[in-house]
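Aggregate trends can hide what the representation actually does to any particular protein. This step matters because it turns folding into a mapping between discrete strings. For completeness, the protein is quoted in full, as a sequence line and a line of structure tokens:
=====
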Amino acid sequence: MPEPASRSVAESLAARLPFYYGWVVVCCTMSAAFVRAGGAVAILTVFVTPMSESLDWSRLAFSGAVSLGGILAAISAPSIGVMADRYGAGRILWVSAVILGVAALGLSRIGSLFWFYAVYCIARMTFASPFDIGISTAVTKWFVGRRARAMSYVAIVQQIGLATMPLIAHVAISGADWRSGWVAIGVVVLSVGVLPSLLLLVRRPEDIGLTPDPAGIAKVGKAAPVAAKREPEFTRAQALRTPALWLIMGFTVFIYPVQAGLSLHQVPHLLERGMPPWVAVSAVTLFSLVAALSSLGFGVFAGRFGSRHALCIAALALSASALAFIAVQLVWQAYLAAALFGIGIGGLQTLLPVIWGEYFGRRNFGAIRGMTLPVQVVSQAAGPLLAGASYDWRGDYEYSMALFAGLAVIAAALVYFARPPVWRTYTKGR
């Protein structure tokens, strides 16, 4: 059933709006995507050096918290996906914002590694599972023809969050200490992330008398026009029988260690290479801004040439970024590596949710995404561990960066061969 509070507000608002209510849904998911950055490893990377110096923790200890949080996300993802289909993304997103904001405030009070793990793992789990499923489900349920464009707008705001949150934390840390940095993150999350999803986000357009894009805008109480093209409606069992699902899952296995490993350890790596702190932090901001711009470009590219080709290019950009980080000696090289990383991240975050929707449809999107997300988050958990162990063993990140470059190339090959499944082939005999 749809969310009762938001449904009545949405029905009244949709009847008066001169544009499709799905764009209001996109704005709600934008607010969730912005505050989701509070649980990203790109934020934790700003805290690694001051917290490790203050509390005498190893880099591997931080990596372990990221990885354990990812494992918890993998465990919760299947049930979250079913809930998203049944109850709607709105409930998932506003509750997630509350949990993440409170967790950030809690991190400002910790003094032991045990409590850091207990609190940060909750934040990381919320980032990796409920936020991911909630955001992608909300957009997928409301859009078909313009899904890549809508998702690119959300990805832009998510990257703005990734660019803004490290600066907010850095300013707070510079003005006081790392505890103030977590307080600042918590306040922003609670202020921005709760109300839009609570009040305005509806499960799907049919719940308020509308049809999904591109079928057109049907006013409340009027007959809905017939969609221009029938979507696939794979069940979870049918999706499991397609080669495409396994190839895309293989893509996530190889690409997400690269994404998370580089994201967490990029600032410590740049500091080890002699970059001033302001250069290291601004490199995080640069990659986030580049990712925001590339999200829009990838959305347009995918509309013309397909999501799998665009994801292939994104993976190759991440491989080039890892190699560029190895070669960093000068400031411009640090920014080049960060920009390449941003190009790859922009494509990955925009189009991975899109390709799941394109290939398998809206009806059971949450259940299918909840089933496949554990593979993604477990793979994501491996990246920080690999990089942290490499640093503790050798005193640098070069081996892990070279490994990440190779993994990204394998991922590019896998997604290139993931051709769209033909739904009719899997529905015979129903």
User: Anything to note?
Assistant: The chain is about 80% helix and 0% strand.
